[in-house]
Amino acid sequence: MPSQNIAVRKDVYHALEREKRPGESFTKLFVRLLQQRGPLEELAGSWATAARTAQRQWRAVRGGGFRR
Question: What's the CA gap between 25 and 30, in Å, rounded?
């Protein structure tokens, strides 16, 4: 089977290595991870919500209290 090399940062490589199951190849890991992801539509708006949550938490840490 033909193969293709890819380059990733070391931190990404180590994160992927931690995700691998015993005896699992990186190819099988990628296939498994790609099959697990849901439709992109499920993520719509997620970043905006995460950003608002992070801002509230940061204000609380700085002493501004939680605001909605």
Answer: 9
* Alpha-carbon span 6 to 44, nearest angstrom: 29
What DSSP character marks residue 36? H
Place of tokens 């290595």: 17
pLDDT value for 47 = 64
Q: How far apart are CA 54 and CA 26, in angstroms?
A: 33
Flag residues of the chain having pLDDT under 50.
Answer: none
pTM of the model: 0.51
Based on its alpha-carbon atoms, the radius of gyration of the chain, rounded to whole angstroms, reads 19
Q: 55: which 2 tokens?
A: 């801002």
**Cα dihedral 40, 44, 50, 55 in deg (nearest 10):** 140
